Amino acid sequence: MMQFTYAVKLRRDKRDGGYVVTCRDLPEVITQGDTVEEAVAEAADALEEAVAGRIDDKRDIPVPTAKKREERNVSVPPSMALKAAVYLAVREAGISNSELARRLRLDEKEARRILDPHHPTKLPRIEAALAALGREVRMELA
């Protein structure tokens, strides 16, 4: 099962006020917010951008590690988590965009859009891509 909920640390910024947010698993995630609620919302946005950047750069997306006592869990927004799941499944299967397109009976441009973290792919298309890769979408609400 793939999960995209990462442990982040909120550190009070004594000099400027507010909170600075960092993530051990995705060191490029550094953001801030004036309140805890704002910092957590900014953390979700930063996580989304970090995952999108890793997909764009064809880099690994790390498996989240367990949160420590001074951390809190923040999830990547669902649409990006689904894009990341497709990306990781394609990498794991070792297939090309052409092969993904063939399996989905799409042209290559449409298959590339499924893997484009900035393209708003609809859920049925993502579910079909994951099914073609032997995966399924399951939701969990916490």
Q: What is the residue-averaged pLDDT?
A: 95
Assembly classification: single chain
Helix content: 40-55%
Bin the strand percentage: 15-25%
Specify the number of helices: 5
Structural class: alpha+beta
What's the number of structural domains? Answer: 2
Strand order of the largest sheet: 3-2-1-4
Compute the CA-based radius of gyration. Answer: 17 Å
Could you please say which CATH topology of the largest domain applies here?
Answer: Double Stranded RNA Binding Domain
Order of helices and strands: EEEHEHHHH
Overall geometric form: elongated
How far from one another are the termini? 16 Å
Total strands: the figure is: 4
Question: What is the topological layout?
Answer:
Blueprint: E1 5-12, E2 19-23, E3 30-33, H1 36-56, E4 71-75, H2 78-93, H3 97-104, H4 108-115, H5 123-132
Structure at a glance:
By secondary structure, this protein is of the alpha+beta class.
Q: How would you characterize the overall build of this protein?
A:
With 142 residues, the chain is of the alpha+beta class. The chain folds into two domains: 5-75, Double Stranded RNA Binding Domain (2-Layer Sandwich); 78-132. The chain contains five helices and four strands, in the order βββαβαααα. It has helices at residues 36-56, 78-93, 97-104, 108-115, 123-132; strands at residues 5-12, 19-23, 30-33, 71-75. It has a four-stranded antiparallel beta sheet with strand order 3-2-1-4, covered by helices on one side. Strand 2 and strand 3 (30-33) form a beta hairpin. Helix 1 (36-56) packs parallel to helix 2 and helix 3 (97-104) packs across helix 4 (108-115). The chain is elongated and about 55 Å long. The mean pLDDT is 95.
